[in-house]
Amino acid sequence: MKKWYFCKQCGYSCVISGLTQISNRLIGKGSPEMCPNCNIKIAELPIEIVDKYDCFNGLNIFSTDWIESREQYINDYVSQFPEFNKELYKKELSRLKESAERHFQYEEVQKEKYMAKINKEAQKILDKQNCISKCPICGSTNINKITLGSRAAKTAVFGVVGAVDDAGKTYKCGNCGGKF
Q1: Would you tell me how many other CB atoms lie within 10 Å of the CB of residue 105?
Q2: Is the dihedral angle over the CA atoms 45, 49, 55, 59 positive or is it negative?
Q3: pLDDT digit string (tens) for 88-111?
Q4: 148 vs 145, 158, 159, CA distance in Å?
Q5: pTM for this one?
Q6: Assuming Cys at both sites, which of 108, 123, 160, 175 could form a disulfide with 140, CB separation 3.0 to 4.6 Å?
């Protein structure tokens, strides 16, 4: 079960699950029960506080609503503790803002990469659609494919000479009559 914890000095908050504790011990990371800013033991947030403030309940982290809800939580709850230190809170807030900026920059880069991929795929589709053959002699797009039936008929009427005339050709221009 996930539980929310907070630092009474700076307002740092986090979720700690049993898995977090096990993984931190396995990789030799510091105790998750300590504030990374103040290096003091963090306290469990009462469930009624978690339920009261939207910053703990699914708001998009670093959104305007999340920031406002978090500010309200700090002012209503954390600032009431005698250990609360406004200067340390300002440092935590600065850390959160830097983290948000990095998060938004990362998301922007990911969005740009995704859009580049989409644009590349769209360009491939457009290139295929725009790949209309043109007559190399006159540039006309009024071209017709030389069918197997027309080849056979020409060979039947003209013999080998008819077959040689269309050999290696795929299209015939409807304007100039050129074969290519």
Answers
A1: 10
A2: positive
A3: 999 888 888 888 788 888 889 999
A4: 9, 15, 15
A5: 0.53
A6: 175
